[in-house]
Write a structure and sequence with these properties.
- This protein is mainly beta.
- It has a six-stranded antiparallel β-sheet with strand order 1-6-2-3-4-5.
- It is globular and about 40 Å long.
Length: about 100
């Protein structure tokens, strides 16, 4: 089971997460290749105004920004050149679903 991260729920480093698998139109800050994939919070960066709203001149609430670490195999499967590599991406909270530990494997 996954729970979308809310503004007041700061995830700790090491938390297991999945990036939401949605494809909204327009300016978005989550690369398509990480959507629907699972990873670990590498670090909490800081809250920033949501750039997806700012891009259109809209009022933007602050969203926590996280650095999320993914295994190369999680992202690229059998095509991963170096399966032990890690890829990190900075992802805003509204893209992140927290996984329960029992479902993270």
């Amino acid at each position: 089971m996954a729970t979308q991260v809310l503004d007041n729920n700061v995830l700790p480093a090491g938390a297991k997460v999945r990036i939401r698998s949605i494809m909204p139109p327009g300016h978005v800050r989550a690369p398509a290749y990480v959507r629907g994939k699972t990873g670990d919070i590498e670090r909490v960066i800081a809250p920033f105004k949501n750039p997806e709203q700012l891009a259109y001149g809209l009022p933007a609430a602050e969203q926590m920004l996280y650095r999320v670490s993914f295994s190369a195999v999680e992202l690229w499967g059998d095509e991963a050149e170096n399966p032990e590599d890690r890829i990190e991406a900075e992802i805003y909270a509204h893209w992140i679903e927290e996984l329960e530990t029992s479902n993270a494997t």
